[in-house]
TrEMBL record:
Lineage: Bacteria, Pseudomonadati, Pseudomonadota, Alphaproteobacteria, Sphingomonadales
CDD domains per UniProt: ExoIII-like_AP-endo
Similarity comment: family membership: Belongs to the DNA repair enzymes AP/ExoA family.
Required cofactor names: Mg(2+)
Keywords annotated in UniProt: Hydrolase, Magnesium, Metal-binding
Superkingdom to which the source organism belongs: Bacteria
Gene (UniProt): xth_1
UniProt-listed InterPro entries: AP_endonuc_1, AP_endonuclease_F1_BS, Endo/exonu/phosph_ase_sf, Endo/exonuclease/phosphatase, ExoIII-like
Domain Endonuclease/exonuclease/phosphatase: from-to ranges: 4-248
Name under which the protein is recorded: Exodeoxyribonuclease III
Length: 256
């Protein structure tokens, strides 16, 4: 099973890119973030024509998450976090697909820091950690995939010294990501590629993609059952080079 996460940065505006990538790579499951569309404007028919069933949790102009399944319809198990600090923001969706529990998340950016947006980010992380603690011991494979808006370590960013004041690289959020790992969640990409500088996001400005001046903020966290099945992981960088594309590239894992 190939499970991908992709911040599309506007599902309708990037729909041609999304459909071309789906046709070329045929992932079994896709977690989408930053739909920037209310529920009624989600392109369900176009995705169904491409062979994907979907569930979605939209929001006008901002946020929004969706889970796609190839030749299947995801079975929704949760919409929003328990104890969500702001339920009006569509940031978490969960589904069962072929025996795997998939959580799709779009964690708050948190900038500017300090300030109310960063405080909200920390509250959201706390609620997410509480849910993750419930899901971790499940016997079935669990994959928590999405745009975490967290740069975990120095090797996950070009020139880390330039990010010391940014909410994506704040000590509090890096500590939270490290806590998840300490509790038993496996960072899939780092599990198989512990030292390589691998990025998933490149800003539109300053020719960042051409210079490979990127960040790694899109992650798959796996519980023990899922980690035992992990076979490969990759980033579809070519999608970031397409016209009118997102500033993120799809990231995928393969489970046996």
């Amino acid at each position: 099973m190939r499970i991908a996460t992709y911040n599309v940065n506007g599902v309708n505006g990037r729909l041609p890119v999304l459909l071309e990538w789906l046709a070329a790579t045929a992932p079994d499951v896709v977690c989408l973030q930053e739909l920037k569309a209310p529920d009624e404007r989600f392109p369900a028919e176009a995705l169904e024509a491409a062979g994907y069933g979907a569930i979605w949790h939209g929001q006008k102009s901002w946020n929004g998450v969706a889970i796609l399944a190839r030749n299947a319809v995801p079975i929704e198990t949760r919409r929003g976090l328990p104890d969500d600090p702001d339920p009006t923001q569509s940031r978490y969706l969960e589904a069962a697909i072929d025996g795997v529990l998939i959580g799709c998340l779009y964690l708050p950016n948190g900038n500017p820091r300090p300030g109310p947006k960063f405080d909200y980010k920390l509250r959201w992380i706390a609620a997410f950690e509480a849910l993750a603690a419930e899901l971790l011991p499940l016997e079935q494979p669990v994959v928590l995939a999405g745009d975490y808006n967290i740069i975990p370590t120095d090797r996950d960013v070009t020139k880390p010294e330039r990010w010391t004041e940014d909410a994506l690289f704040a000590p509090e959020v890096r500590a939270a990501f490290a806590r998840l790992g300490g509790e038993g969640w496996i960072d899939a990409l780092r599990h198989l590629h512990p030292d390589e500088p691998i990025f998933t996001f490149w800003d539109y400005f300053r020719n960042a993609f051409a210079r490979d001046a990127g960040l790694r903020i899109d992650h798959h966290l796996l519980n023990a059952a899922a980690a035992s099945c992990l076979r490969s992981v990759g980033v579809d960088r070519s999608v970031r080079a397409m016209p009118k594309t997102s500033d993120h590239a799809p990231v995928w894992i393969e489970l046996a």
